[in-house]
Amino acid sequence: MKLTARRQARELALQILFQTEFAPQISFKTFLEVFEQSLDAEVTSYAETLVQGVQSNKEKVDAKIQASSAHWKVERMATIDRNILRIAVYEMKFASEPIKENIAINEAVEIAKKYGTTDSASFVNGLLDQVGKAY
């Protein structure tokens, strides 16, 4: 899978995870269907893998984030930042084929620059660096 396809998949997964926090009664598959016609099957497939992976490992993913965050509770983090972190931690630590930490961190930082606040990229970078060092 090309890097651009993976980036698109991560961004789509972020959008779906964000939406499911506000409308948990709606299945993530419903949100995914909205995008399926306009995106490559490779993108939607990997996005689905990420969303399912984050959701099925949410407690463990959040525990790793919390253990590396001295000053922020996971539930108090900005929704965008929290879900960017979840995707990256899932890919680094829980995916069936984990990706290298530096790649996961770089991807998360780039997505944070695009979707987060002016502080998101440095927050995500610092926290994921701690996750990588801690485990």
Automatic annotation (TrEMBL):
Domain named NusB/RsmB/TIM44 is located at 7-131
Read off the Gene3D superfamilies from this record. NusB-like (1.10.940.10)
Can you tell which superkingdom this protein's organism belongs to?
A: Bacteria
Keywords of this entry: RNA-binding, Transcription, Transcription antitermination, Transcription regulation
Q: InterPro entries this protein is in?
A: NusB-like_sf (IPR035926), NusB_fam (IPR011605), NusB_RsmB_TIM44 (IPR006027)
Known function: Involved in transcription antitermination. Required for transcription of ribosomal RNA (rRNA) genes. Binds specifically to the boxA antiterminator sequence of the ribosomal RNA (rrn) operons.
Family classification: Belongs to the NusB family.
What is the name of the protein in this document?
A: Transcription antitermination protein NusB
